[in-house]
Write a structure and sequence with these properties.
The structure is a homodimer. Chain A is of the alpha+beta class. Chain A is 34% helix and 27% strand. Chain A is built from 14 helices and 23 strands. Chain A has an 11-stranded mixed sheet with strand order 3-7-8-14-11-10-9-22-23-21-20, with helices on both faces. In chain A, strands 16-15-17-18-19 form a 5-stranded mixed sheet, with helices on both faces. The first copy, chain A, has a 3-stranded antiparallel sheet with strand order 4-6-5. In chain A, helix 2 crosses helix 6. Chain A is globular. At the A-B interface, strand 2, helix 2, strand 3, strand 4 and strand 5 of A face strand 2, helix 2, strand 3, strand 4 and strand 5 of B. Strand 5 of chain A pairs antiparallel with strand 5 of chain B, so a sheet runs across the interface.
C-alpha cells in the first residue's frame, strides 16, 4: 500500500486565476486546508476548516427546513438491488454509477446491495409502510447523509465519488401540494444561497434531458463562477406519482378511494463550498462571507516590547467581548510566526476581517481593521469597537453579494443568433439567454458544438413569440439560460 | 422484491417488562416511532422522533468536544483493502465483519474496498501526511459518521449493521498526553451520560480480551439496564504507537529526532438511545430525561364547550411563553383524537411533563401538570407557571438519575466465591464485583459457564490482597466488575 504517498504535497503558492482557474481552485482548496485528496480514488477528506464551513451551512439550512415544518430522520446506507430496480427511469439514471457491495464479512451476498446514490427508493418503501390514510400526510422528512456515485472525473467538493448532502423527501395528498412543496424548497435554497453564501442564483426549470431520473419536473438554482461557468447549486424535484406507484405509497383518500401519494425530493451538498470559493475568491485565496466564515475576525497582536503584558491582554479582552456577542474570533498569538506571515495566512483562508493591535495602537486607544474583500485598512477607535465590527461584518456580507451580482450582470447576455451565441461562448463566457424550440436534439447539438448546456428555463421569461430557435430556426417555445457548466 | 412486506406491522400493545423485557424493548422502540426495521437485513430506519433524540445527544456531545479543544472533520466512507490490512491486530478484529465493495458502476475494482467499520486506518494515513513536526501536534479531530459492521444478530439501536456514531481521533507528542486525552474523553462521556441522559455509568479499564483491536488500553463506561444486564455505552482507547507505526505518523521532535506519534480514539453511538430506553422506561413505554426529550412538555387542551375560543388561545399563550424560554413544547390540538388517547400516546412516547387545560381550569386560573416519571398529577396556578415548569423539569431530570442510581445500587453486589457468583447471575442479575487472577482463561470460562463477562476493572478498587480468583483460586490481582451484557 503506497497510495498514501500518491497524495501530492500541499501547494506553497496559489496559481493566479487568470493563469489557470482550475489550478487556482485546487490550490486554494488544499492550501487553505478546506479539503484534501485521500488514498481512495475520487474520495476527499474534508478538513476541519472546510468542515466548519459545512457545519455553518448545515445550521442555516436546518433552521430553514424546520421553520418550514420538516423533521430529520435517517435511512439505511445500503439498498438491495431489487429495490433500486423498481423505478425504471431512476435505475437507468443511477445504475451505471453506483458502488456495489457483494460480500458481508465472509459471506457472499445472495442479493447485491448498492451504496445509496440518493434515497428515493429506500425511503419510498418506508413511506409505503407508514402511510395508510390521508391523515398520515404530508410526510415532510429531511436526511443529512453521505452518498456515493461512481464518478470518472472528480474535483474536490464539486464532484467526488462520496459527498455529504441533505436530501428532503416529502409525500403529499394532492399534486398541488407536491408542486407547492417543490417550489417552496427551491425558494428556500435561493434565499439561503443569497442570504448566507452571498451567492446570487438563477432559478428555473430543467429541460427534459437534464431532469432527475424518475422526476416529473426538476427545478434548480444556478450560480455563476468567476471563470464564467455555471454551477448547479441545488435541485428540487416534483416526482409526481412515479415513485409512489413503484413503491406503493398509497392511502385512503377523504372520499374513501385509494390514491397514490405525490412525492418530492430536493437536495444540496458540500458542492456549495466549491460554489462559495469560486464565487468570491481572488488571487490572494479564499474570501468567505461572514455568515459562513468559521472565523469572522482574526486578531493579530503586533509583538513589540513587552507586548505580552500590554497588547495581548487587550487583544484577549477585545476577543472576549466579541465572542460574548456571538462573533467568531481567532486570536492568533503564536510566537512562532511573524505578523506578516499571519496576515498572508488568514487572507489566504478568507477571514473577512483582520484586527491588528500593537503598542502604538494601545497608546492611541485604537486598532487597525483590514477588510479581506476590499483590502481597505482603517484605524478605528477602541470606543464602540464591537458594534463597529458587527456593522462592518454585515457590510462585507452585503458587499460580497453586490459584487457577485454585478459580476453576473456583466457576464449575462442575450443572443438571438447562433453566431452571436458561439462568439460569446468562445470569448468571455457567462449566462446567455436565447430562444429555443424545445427540442432535445437542438439542445444536444448546441452542447456538442459549444459545450454550453441549458441551465434552466426561467420562470419569468421575456416573450418568445415570433422568435426562432437559436439552433434550428423553428419557432421558439421559450427562452432558455445557457452556459458552460461544472 | 417483497421484502418490504416482511416488515411487521407496528405493535398495538406494549409487552410488560416482567413478561419479556426484550419484547418490551422492541415494542417501545417501534410503537413510540423511534426506529423501524428496513428492507435491508440488520439495518434500521431512525424515525423523526428517535432522530430528534439523537440530535439533542449530538448537540450535548459536540459542545463538550469543542469545549475540550476538538474540531470536526470528515474522512472517506470507503477504505482500500491494503490499507485496512496494515495494522495486524486491527484487521484480525475487523476483517470478519466488514462489508466489501467489489464493483463501481460497471467496472470490477482492481482492489476491493471496505465500508468503514471504524476509521483509524484512513485517518492514520491522512495524519501521516499532515504531521511533520512536533508543532503540528496535537491533532484533535472528531468525526460524526455512519459505520457498517456485518452483524449476525441485530437489535434496533443496540446492534445494527449500520449505525451512526462519533469517532474522535487524536495524535500527540508524548505517551502522557495521549493517556490524558484518553481519560479526559472517558470523563466527558461519563459526565455526559449522567448529566444529560440521567444514566449512571461505571468507568474502568477493559481486560486484554475485551479491548479494541489494535489498542494498548481500552476504557469504557458501562450502564445497567432495567433487566439487570450491562450495556457498554462508550469507549476510549489509548492506541499507543501501534497505529502511528503502521501508518507512519511520525514527526521531528523537539530534540530533532524522528518520533512516532501517540494516538487515541473514542466513540459513542446511537446505541445510547437504547441505553436511555432501558434505563428509564416502564410498562407504559418510554420515559425520557427532559434534557434529551424532543418535547419536554405536551399541552393537551380539554375540548369542552367553545374551547377553541377560550381554552385553545390560552394553551397557545402558555406554549409561546414556554418556547420563548427555550422549553420544547408540543401543543396537541388535534380534533381527531380524545384527551384520553393523547394522554396515553404521549406517555408512551415518554414526554416528561403533560399539561392539561380545560374550561374549569381557565375559570380557576390553573392547569393540571402530570409527571411521566412518577405519574403524580397536581393543580398548579397559572401565575408563575413557566418558572414552575422549568423547575419541575430540572427536578424530573434529577429524579430519573436518582432512581437509576438506586436501581443500580440494589443490583450491585460483591461475590468472593464462585457459588455465590453463579447464584446471583442465575437469579436477579446486575453488577457483581469479584476478585480475579487476571487470566484470560478464567475470564473465558466464567463467560461460558455463567454468560457473565468482565465489564471493566474499576479505577478505584477495594484491595485484592489476600483474595483469590473467583474461578481458579489463584491469587487475585484485581477486583473486576462482572455482568451479563448486551
Amino acid at each position: 500500500m503506497t497510495k498514501d504517498t500518491e497524495i501530492p504535497d500541499l501547494p506553497t503558492e496559489i496559481t493566479p486565476q487568470s493563469k489557470d482557474f482550475g489550478r487556482w481552485y485546487i490550490d486554494v482548496v488544499r492550501r487553505a486546508e478546506l479539503a484534501d485528496y485521500s488514498p481512495v480514488k475520487g474520495c476527499m477528506v474534508i478538513r476541519p476548516y472546510g468542515y466548519a464551513i459545512w457545519e455553518l451551512m448545515q445550521q442555516g439550512l436546518d433552521r430553514r427546513f424546520k421553520a418550514t415544518g420538516h423533521v430529520n430522520a435517517y435511512f439505511p446506507l445500503l439498498i438491495p438491488e431489487s429495490l433500486l430496480m423498481k423505478e425504471a427511469e431512476h435505475v437507468e439514471g443511477f445504475a451505471p454509477q453506483v458502488a456495489w457491495v457483494t460480500q458481508g464479512g465472509n459471506e457472499v451476498l445472495e442479493e447485491r446491495l448498492v451504496i445509496r446514490p440518493t434515497s428515493e427508493t429506500i425511503i419510498g418503501v418506508m413511506y409505503a409502510k407508514w402511510v395508510q390514510s390521508w391523515r398520515d400526510l404530508p410526510i415532510l422528512i429531511n436526511q443529512w447523509a453521505n452518498v456515493v456515485r461512481w464518478e470518472k472525473v472528480t474535483r474536490l467538493f464539486l464532484r467526488t465519488t462520496e459527498f455529504l448532502w441533505q436530501e428532503g423527501h416529502t409525500a403529499h395528498e394532492t399534486a398541488e401540494e407536491a408542486q407547492e412543496e417543490t417550489m417552496r424548497m427551491l425558494g428556500v435554497y435561493k434565499e439561503f444561497a443569497e442570504t448566507e453564501l452571498a451567492m446570487p442564483v438563477m432559478d428555473g426549470q430543467k429541460t427534459e434531458s437534464e431532469k432527475f431520473a424518475g422526476a416529473e419536473r426538476t427545478y434548480s438554482i444556478e450560480a455563476l463562477m468567476r471563470d464564467g461557468r455555471a454551477l448547479q447549486a441545488g435541485t428540487s424535484h416534483n416526482l409526481g406519482q412515479n415513485f409512489a406507484k413503484s413503491y406503493e405509497i398509497k392511502f385512503q383518500a377523504r372520499d374513501k378511494s385509494v390514491q397514490f401519494a405525490h412525492t418530492t425530493s430536493w437536495g444540496v451538498s458540500t458542492r456549495l463550498i466549491g460554489g462559495v470559493i469560486m464565487t468570491h475568491g481572488d488571487d490572494g485565496g479564499l474570501i468567505l462571507p461572514p455568515k459562513i466564515a468559521p472565523y469572522q475576525v482574526v486578531i493579530v497582536p503586533i509583538p513589540r516590547g513587552n507586548w505580552k503584558e500590554t497588547v495581548l491582554p487587550k487583544a484577549q479582552a477585545i476577543r472576549d467581548e466579541l465572542v460574548a456577542r456571538g462573533v467568531r474570533v481567532m486570536l492568533d498569538d503564536r510566537d512562532s510566526q511573524t505578523p506578516g506571515w499571519k496576515f498572508n495566512e488568514w487572507e489566504l483562508r478568507g477571514v473577512p476581517l483582520r484586527l491588528e493591535i500593537g503598542p502604538k495602537d494601545l497608546e492611541k486607544s485604537q486598532v487597525v481593521l483590514a477588510r479581506r474583500d476590499t483590502r481597505v485598512k482603517a484605524f478605528v477607535p477602541m470606543e464602540g469597537l464591537t458594534p463597529h465590527i458587527e456593522q462592518l461584518l454585515a457590510t462585507i456580507q452585503q458587499a460580497l453579494l453586490d459584487r457577485a451580482l454585478a459580476y453576473r450582470e456583466e457576464h449575462t447576455s442575450q443572443a438571438d443568433s447562433y453566431e452571436e451565441f458561439k462568439a460569446i461562448m468562445e470569448g468571455r463566457p457567462g449566462f446567455v439567454i436565447s430562444p429555443w424550440c424545445g427540442s432535445a436534439t437542438c439542445e444536444a447539438e448546441i452542447k456538442t458544438e459549444t459545450q454550453a448546456t441549458i441551465r434552466n428555463i426561467p420562470f419569468v421569461s421575456t416573450d418568445a413569440t415570433g422568435k426562432v430557435c437559436l439552433r434550428c430556426g423553428a419557432a421558439a417555445t421559450a427562452h432558455a439560460w445557457f452556459a458552460k457548466s461544472y
